[in-house]
Amino acid sequence: MVKEVAGVIGKTVIHGFFIVLGFLLLGTGQVKAQETQKQYLSGTDKDHTVKWDFFCTAGRNSGKWSKIAVPSNWELQGFGKYDYGFAKDSVKGKEKGLYKYKFKVPAAWNGKKVNIVFEGSMTDTEVKINGVSAGEIHQGAFYAFRYDISKLLKYGASNLLEVTVAKHSANKSVNEAERKADYWIFGGIFRPVYLEALPESHIERVAVDAKADGQFKAQVWTGGSADKVTAQLYSENGNKFGNEINSALAKGTSDVLLSGSFSSPELWSPEFPNLYKVVFTLYKQGKAVHTVTQKTGFRTVDVKQRDGVYVNGVKIKFKGVNRHSFHPQSGRTTSKAISIADVNLMKDMNMNAVRMSHYPPDGHFLDVCDSLGLFVMDELAGWHGNYDTPTGTKLVKEMMSHDVNHPSIVFWSNGNEGGHNRELDHLFTELDIQKRPMVHPWEDFNGFDTQHYREFNYGISNYMHGHSIVMPTEFLHGMYDGGHGAGLDDYWNEMLRHPLSAGGFLWDFADQAVVRTDKNGILDTDGNHGPDGIVGPYHEKEGSFYTIKEVWSPVFFERREMTEDFDGVFNIENRYYYTNLNQCSFSWKLTKFKSAESKTGVLASPDIKPFEKGRLKIGLPSDWRDFDALYITATDPHKRELFTWSFPVTLPVKEASALVTKQGNSAVSLTETDSLYHVQANGISLSFSKKSGVLRSVKNERGVIPFNNGPVVQEGVNNFNGLTGKKDGDNVVIESTFDRKTAYNTLQWTIYPSGWVKLHVRYFPGEYLTNFAGVNFSFPESKMKGVEYMGMGPYRVWRNRTKGNKFGVWKKDYNNTETGESWVYPEFKGYHSNMYWCKFNTTEQPFTVVTENEDLFLRLFSAAFKTDQWHNYEPHFPSGDISFMQGIPGIGTKTQRSDRTGPMSMKNLFYDYEKEPARALNIVLYFDFSGKP
């Protein structure tokens, strides 16, 4: 590790950049060894940049010298042309960027080895110092590379750096691997550029292997002449850990293997990401001349063929996601703050793994995975195409030397979906001191079946019963609101059950929407290519975020209803790998929605080991039945919320009894015209069709409420016939007549003196398997301002994505969000589960609907219909505008139809099709059209 900020001695500022001369005190403090000195020529990330001179050869703002921020992608700075990887002209190679920058280096650096380092440049990069080539053109966008420029520099004087970057490579295989891909194609120096100065005798690099049993070894490569290398470990609190390891350098050799053993190290895992610092020191003639610091973690990765992946002796199922290095305002130029935010969001979803798609990430992302705890699959670029062997060999070496020491990395990946150059496979083992496994995503290779997007029935019934370890590196391909959480519960239950399953990786983390500086700053996903995320481009959380959070929670609650004889016991399961649930925290809360009264408590954390089941006991107060809901929150040992589970205490029939007023001071009147029944009650006027029983109009003393044209049964036959209207005591009843053959669906309207209206519909779905079951009404979308409802919320649901919400009272303002195209969440339109009541706030006056039904879905309008050539992702909604449903459809993914992602995704099955009223489905709704707030 090098010093980048002020060290023990201090800092020298040259042209606004830090040069740090840091020294490490060793032993008794009498010996000092110089650390690597580092001077940034660019900025450090997207938020800290430096202006260089720039000339773009084609596209916007081309043909003239100007300034550009470095690091950056030049498209986001107003230059060149935006290209998505599938664009026909994306590999013609016309765009180049010419960079110039003047800098100084200290005179004291004369005699040192000085490298110029590029962390990432897209794509072919030619570097000159003072007009002289620094070395061969570098080809490959995502890899750190360096040149020794010691002999090209003017020390203590001004130097000129000239860089020519070709957006597309002159090497066809590089374009095949990196540029003809399903992601945005950018150009430019997109990661930092800096100088590093090393003493004449120095440590070039190190590779560390720290095993779970305490065995430690490190390969150290040196430059110049030296006698000995030592290594001292330090714990995170700065204390020495174990004894110093040392080894002499044989004369004429430039590398050495250090080895030792440490007693009872704290192990690294995503649950407990314990890290150690290793200080390597190089000695020459007994004097410490150079020191390098490297972080490491003790952990062991074992693959047992036809069994599974074991980390620290524990069999793992990966709860992972694919992640691009991306930010909408800066393209592939990111920052450590973005890396921290990304990893925290993944951890918040209870993920334990991330795949680098489809290229190595920024170093700081891997640092954050080390420190916060995520398993990583690091990937050589290759998307349906691969590097040629000479180029690939060089890039594998660059990736390995840059990333090899991260304990978070547990897999290497040689390209993606056919982008595998098999001649490179041997390098991953040869160059990795830890001998981590390597996979070919999309293949059954090396003992791992990583095939992508297997349909549930095929995937579970076939390849789950093969002989390879099953670990799809992409499954449930998100697009708009489809995929991710939809179907995940079914897949995950099977993954947990099958011993050959090692989990899998969702596609993908965030919507790839880029700011178009050529289109007034709009966010562009290139149609349906980029809206694949669980979160939006600025980390806006979509409904699937919370579904995943619940499904992948390491604490699992068996279903339990709050019945009268509830004894306070919940059966739970520990799905952690290393954590006992007594290390977690549990709390509860009882809430009354109307009064906001609540009671809270803390639970004793149960002693339940990983993979075991047990009981969580809550001592509730004697009046717990008077509350509306119970919430239980679990928090991990690091104070991160795992999930908050909701348990309704009250039932819809109880809420309806409390809300609905039937008595009134005025009589209900019934009159008829040729086609309508007219009813008046307490200032409310209603009209119903005498032919179909459908509500035609609603009016009160303040005006018309445009809620009408229902109930319409869907999917089913609207055969309400034989309508009669009559007085029934103080009420008016309008109902249809049952006929086994022609009018087997029935309705009954009851209008009370209070003005409240009851609707009871008995109906049969029209098909054995159906997308919909319920009734629809019409309401003009333009007049809707928002809703307030009691039920699960606030996010919309699909039949195959009902988990993740919380039971409560929710207020939602109207929005027209189309998931993945606009990012105002939660979406207003769609299905909302377990409705008890809903107040509709309109541009004119409100009205309220209450139900006695459990498990009723409230449908609010229709999201825009979208489809594709395979008819996979299709959001289906019934007719009308507002619906009350007992069966709703699932949602598909980009690669799978909804009915092929598991049982929850299939159509609704109503097996009892006898046309008898007693066997029909029933919906009971109450309407308050008084317009009162």
UniProtKB/TrEMBL annotation:
Residues 202-299 form the Glycoside hydrolase family 2 immunoglobulin-like beta-sandwich domain. One of its GO terms (biological process) is lactose catabolic process. The keyword Glycosyltransferase does not apply. It catalyses: Hydrolysis of terminal non-reducing beta-D-galactose residues in beta-D-galactosides. Pfam families: Bgal_small_N, Glyco_hydro_2, Glyco_hydro_2_C, Glyco_hydro_2_N. Residues 303-520 form the Glycoside hydrolase family 2 catalytic domain. Residues 729-851 form the Beta galactosidase small chain/ domain. InterPro entries: B-gal_small/dom_5 (IPR004199), Bact_Beta-galactosidase (IPR050347), Beta-gal/glucu_dom_sf (IPR036156), Gal_mutarotase_sf_dom (IPR011013), Galactose-bd-like_sf (IPR008979), GH (IPR017853), GH-type_carb-bd (IPR014718), Glyco_hydro_2 (IPR006101). Keywords: Calcium, Glycosidase, Hydrolase. Its EC number is 3.2.1.23. One of its GO terms (molecular function) is carbohydrate binding. It is an enzyme of class 3 (hydrolase). Residues 66-199 form the Glycosyl hydrolases family 2 sugar binding domain. The keyword Hydrolase applies. Its cofactor is Ca(2+). GO terms for cellular component: beta-galactosidase complex. Belongs to the glycosyl hydrolase 2 family. Monomer. This is beta-galactosidase. It comes from Pararcticibacter amylolyticus. The lineage of its organism: Bacteria, Pseudomonadati, Bacteroidota, Sphingobacteriia, Sphingobacteriales.
